[in-house]
Amino acid sequence: MKNKVDFTNIKTPAYLYNISLLEQTLNSIQKLANQYKYHVHYALKANNNPRILQTISGFGFGADCVSGNEIKEAIKQGFKTSQIAFAGVGKTDEEINYALEQEIFSFNCESLPEIEVINELAQKMQKTASLALRINPNVDANTHKYITTGLEENKFGINLWDIDSILDAMEGMQNVKLTGIHFHIGSQITDLDTFKNLSNRINQIQEKLYARQLIVDHINVGGGLGINYHQPDEDPIPDFESYFKIFHDFLELRPKQQLHFELGRSIVGQMGSLLSKVIYVKKASKKDFLIIDAAMTDLIRPALYQAYHKIENLSSTCEEKQNYDVVGPVCESADIFAKAVSLPKSQRGDYILIRSAGAYGQVMSSNYNMRDNAQVVFVD
Ligand code: LLP
Question: Which CATH code fits 7-13+270-379?
Fold first, then answer.
């Protein structure tokens, strides 16, 4: 990326999105998913830029949405309603009604009260809603605690011991149909054994359902595949081959059962970077700070999860290296991108690139301190 883009014309901070890398990533997924006959939904929450959504829907992928507005946007950008899954612990009546009107693929349900409301609202419209139970499999994702979702202590999903009573209750409901079971245990999972553990747990759950003579049409294993934040150039495209193979090898599908995925970060993470400029180099007694014009309002991951993003100086040709705390201008001590980063000696006006920012970057931005939004520039 270093030599191909003329940064000097770009107003910073700016999100740079590499559509050609996105297309290569989508090609890789499509090839493997077709081979296994797997269905992939893109999790819009990771990045909802319209051009990115159009590119992904153009490959025929489905969508994974967590709000009524995401469903609307998915439809607007070309995703088929018959391929939209709707997840979330707190779907409102308005959102449910909208999704019912659109006849989406599946409501991924997280509690009995939610299922009761969907049944009631569907009855009013004389429709039958397709439901997948989001089950909390109690499998540890071994990732940051804020992005772990599949443990009993988390707010997500239905606990294993509640499945039977929920299925009993559903037998009396006329306007919902159980079509699937859904799982999502966390995000930025880099140890693929975790997905083996998930597959084994799903096999046990399938046995339990089978004992009730229940075979659901589809299993949705959520998302979670991690990306290489430390060496983005070594792994620009995540290892989808090993990822899909784990499920192929360990998850026992019943005849005709379909396997669905909801990938977010692994699709868009590496195609985005945040470009920024050094405003000041501040020398303090114990350390030097690079104060840049991007802030936690543009990319909150380091402040919120202590997440690592690789940082590069694109301008400096200086051989000499120096350690800097790279910080934004916002009035919060947490507005730090990284501490003690070794960079070529830097100066005011240098361009700084924060890598792997395509997922959960722009979408989590805010206007705190009345800051402007970073602009978006498409690069190849
Ligand atoms: N399906 C469900 C039900 C989800 O909750 C998520 C992400 C996904 C799929 C997509 O997961 P992915 O493939 O992207 O790991 N803001 C955090 C990540 C939050 C993930 C929320 N759920 C971060 O910046 O790391």
Answer: 2.40.37.10
